[in-house]
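Reviewers asked in the last cycle whether our approach scales beyond single polypeptides. To address this, we selected a multi-component target totalling 493 residues and predicted its structure end to end. The input consisted of the following lines:
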Amino acid sequence: MTPVVLSTFGTMVRTMFDFSFLPGYLPYFTQGVAYTLLLALGAVLIAIIPALGLALMRLSKNKFINIIAGGYIAIFRSTPLYVQLSIIYLGVFSMIKIPTFYIFGFVNIAMFIPGIISLALNSAAYVAEIIRGGILAVDQGQGEAARSLGLTQGQSMRYVVLPQAIKNILPSLANELITMIKESSLCGAIGMYELMWAAKTVGGATFLTMSPYLLAAAVYFCINFPAGKIIELLERRMRRGDHR
Amino acid sequence: MAITDNTPIISVKNLTKRFTPKICALNDCNLDIYKGQVVVIVGPSGSGKSTLLRSLNLLEVPTEGEIIFDGVNIADKNVDINLHRQRMGMVFQHFNLFPHMTVMENLTLAPTKVKNMPLEEAKALARELLKKVGLADREDAYPIQLSGGQKQRIAIVRALCMQPDVMLFDEPTSALDPEMVGEVLQVMKDLAAENMTMVVVTHEMGFAREVGERVIFMDGGHILEDKAPQEFFTNPEHPRLQLFLSKVL
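The resulting structure, written as structure tokens, was:
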């Protein structure tokens, strides 16, 4: 009895760390990482402009405008990303056909564009709240001083409040990017060739149930952990020059 | 007393400001300010003096009443307040200089963006005014590099760069080290001597007595006394003012 159990356990440990698939399947992972980074970075960048609009709408005194932006943000923050992906990627984009075209040789825009738009729509809701918070954190006296000089609300926002809000916004925005790198793994579940999809596919092809995912986890960690540390460092440095 | 016009440049009529239905910061205030006058408003904390001052350029929107500035009721929602604010400079307790801009950028922002003044012209005007307040050498400094007194003098110059008809001061020396109060008051005195119309909320009784042409006492959202300084300090009528003066003088 005992030797059998031991040998099964031994096999388990061995397969857990069996990375023999790497020489053959490495491109899956390297392209997967690139795909993931493209998705996440692209989604957050695309999200910034609509997020700024949403944030300004949320700060508006006009109730109607306020409610529209508030509703958008509430919906996207209160439903799972996977559900949103399914509705937008599988649902909405089944009606809008995008031609198959490969960029960088492995990114099919017919899938990539619906995916990145889904992520960006989700991210816009979170980034809007980040921007709103950043604007509200700027001393109220700044806007008052600008308005007292005759600047319009728009000019005051553009020349005085926003440039100061950016300092509050950037660290949180970088954190949103890290979140997006992790969350974009859901895109693998609906068939986009990002990092998690690579792990799943390799797992299926090699019957390895652990090591491909461990590798994926390690890669995510090696991107996000240092990135988080760098953000912390930059944040601290920016704080230092703050007391004006 | 300076020569005053017959029509007030600012006329406050039945001004009431409620923050909530119960909290009434201003209660039926009436006040006429004439060109060239220096009006000093004093009173205990929470008396509504800052709210009254901030109402004059609509940083606080009145609940009821009118504010007639140069013949126009600026409390009217259809009035473009930005046009009128250009003509009313404001100086704040906490300076509110723009920290991400140099002194020169602080001074030229509004003239170039609001009045579309050419940058060189705005700079020349700013330099001239900086020289007057003794800070000609600080135009490239950032606000963080300045002392409190310097910041407030820059803030005054920033307002003056718009060449306003009226200057509003909201406790301009309250956030300053005692040592620096004098230099700011001196700038304000010089301004008064140039016949600038000024409305000053302050705790500096010395300034009120020396520079003010009228001193106004407020409490509980009411204007209780409005007199020439000599009268105000030697012959206060309202018991609340008598109590106030007995504590601050």
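The longest helix of chain A spans residues 22-59. We regard this as preliminary and will revisit it once experimental data from Aim 1 are available.
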